[in-house]
Amino acid sequence: MGVDDASHKIIADLLEQRTGQQLTENRRWRVSTALAGLFRELGLDNVDQLACMLERPGEHHLATKVVEALLNNETYFFRDHVYFAMLANQVLGDLASRRAGSKRLRIWSAGCSTGQEPLSLAMLFCEQPGRWRDWDIEILGSDISGKAIASAKTGCYTQFEIQRGISVAQMLNFFTETPRGWQANDKISSMVRFQQHSILDHPPHPGQFDLVLCRNVLLYFDTDIRRTVFDRLASATASDGLLMLGAGESVVGQTERFEPSQWGSSLYRPTSVHARATRTFQHRASA
């Protein structure tokens, strides 16, 4: 293996150890591009120099910077509009019927990056005030990237970010222009909380979500890691809850914990075996 290959392996191994994500050959081109800013900051010319620095003892802070730079934080408001339309027009109404007794809804946006997805969900609820009046709705946005979550917690977006995916009416209704950028207002930010979390870890509180969105995250895992992730997602999903994946993702042939739902593409429900196990666990916990 040449020096260049060895350097790329050091970077790829670091990413996999920290996040479970694989830097496969077809993504190898991203390394130099993603790390260009770090090269400038450190005065480096190439990946080989960076790899040598990473091999030195005590470079934990540098390793974190490298991983943060390699993570794909691409997102925008209402990404894949057709899925949000399905949620607004069909899925959330069904959940409202099934949770009418408690008037409580818990949603987890896993891999939320800088927060546009959970805030998009909050906008859906705000645009249907009659249906959701007096409901207790909590949306959790999580991501392994501390930098992305820190940005999400500010709720502030640049002109470029705010124009991606939302209408002018939504922009003016749910955001306020400030010298720092477009700030999410309390109508939507009060519904959302953010935390740094690895999807490979045990699910975050409260652990049983009515709807889980994990879109365009599984693409970067190998088969074994993906199976582990599905196990984590299954334990986080209510027995009659739903999981939404990205357009290029599926549970078919990947896990026995989920099966296609009545809503069709990209929406899945826990399998009956998992649902029975979850109900048994909940019953024992409450006894």
From TrEMBL:
Q: Which SMART domains match?
A: MeTrc (SM00138)
The record's section on PROSITE patterns has: CHER
Q: What class of enzyme is it?
A: transferase
Could you tell me which species this protein originates from? Qipengyuania profundimaris
One of the Pfam families matching this protein, by short name: CheR
Which UniProt key words apply to this protein? Methyltransferase, S-adenosyl-L-methionine, Transferase
Name-wise, this protein is: protein-glutamate O-methyltransferase
Q: CheR-type methyltransferase domain: from which residue to which, for each copy?
A: 1-273
Catalysis performed (reactions): L-glutamyl-[protein] + S-adenosyl-L-methionine = [protein]-L-glutamate 5-O-methyl ester + S-adenosyl-L-homocysteine
State which Enzyme Commission number(s) the record gives. 2.1.1.80
